[in-house]
Amino acid sequence: MTEANSPRTVLVTGAGTGIGRATAHAFAAQGDRVIAVGRRPVPLAETAAHDEDRIVPLAADLTAEDGPSGVVRTALERHGRIDVLVNNAAVVTTDSLRTYTPDSVRPLLATNLVAPLLLTQAALPALTESRGVVVNVTTSVGQRGWPGNSLYAAAKAALDVLTRSWAVELAPLGIRVAAVAPGAIETPIADHTGWTPEQRAAIRAWQLAHTPLGRIGRPQEVAWAITRLASPKASFITGVVLPVDGGAVVA
């Protein structure tokens, strides 16, 4: 582990916007060094502009064959260690059971499930050396159901299972694994789905109707939970999937 009060190196995927950006900012605010990973250079640069001394943008495609290994190699070349890995990157589409095709299924699974697995695998030697932490970002809908977007929910539910399995598998190495499961959060992820404004409004109405606290969450609220689970003070917490959803999963 790092020495007391020394900065950790944190890898955050999907860091260009939304929860990933808020998470990068939250870790930087507590003095950690952040590698902000994403596909698009411009949003990543905007994330890094918040604290250029502590946040380094890294444009990479985690679904590419050498994507995970390249990200890990860059992090180690720059900082020599990885203490925390936040698997946050995700994509959502407008497809449903009636319209899924092999071409639409592959990128969903590649980004939402396979990439976190392969990136964690690539980072495992560094995480073993640091006795580090993995935090997966899933979804509270994966604990219930999401009609019309079943594959997204299923991939995230699978990531919940990986979280619990890795927690047991990696505990002898001193590595903790946890997850946060956001509910309805104000992020731009839907901007890239192709949904019409009417469809997005209908989805928001459905989300609000199923959120007991009666509002949409903020990315900063999810980032707070991620940093808490990754904190050294959470040293006896592993295998947990923490809903951050305004009570939606229990309603």
Question: Features of this protein?
Answer:
seven-stranded parallel β-sheet, alpha/beta, 7 helices, globular, about 250 residues
Straight-line distance between termini: 40 Å
Based on Cα principal axes, name the global outline: globular
Radius of gyration of CA atoms, rounded to a whole number:
17 Å
Got a strand count? 7
Largest sheet descriptor: 7 strands, parallel
- Compute the number of helices: 7
SSE order: EHEHEHEHEHEHHE
How much of the sequence lies in strands comes to 5-15%
Quick structural gist:
With 251 residues, the chain is an alpha/beta fold. It has helices spanning 18-29, 41-48, 67-79, 102-130, 150-170, 197-209, 219-230, and strands spanning 9-13, 33-38, 55-59, 84-87, 133-137, 176-182, 241-244.
Give the topology:
Layout: E1 9-13, H1 18-29, E2 33-38, H2 41-48, E3 55-59, H3 67-79, E4 84-87, H4 102-130, E5 133-137, H5 150-170, E6 176-182, H6 197-209, H7 219-230, E7 241-244
Parallel strand pairs: 1-2, 1-4, 2-3, 4-5, 5-6, 6-7
Helix pairs in contact: 1-7, 3-4, 4-5
Report on the structure:
The protein is α/β, with parallel strands linked by helices. The protein is 43% helix and 14% strand.
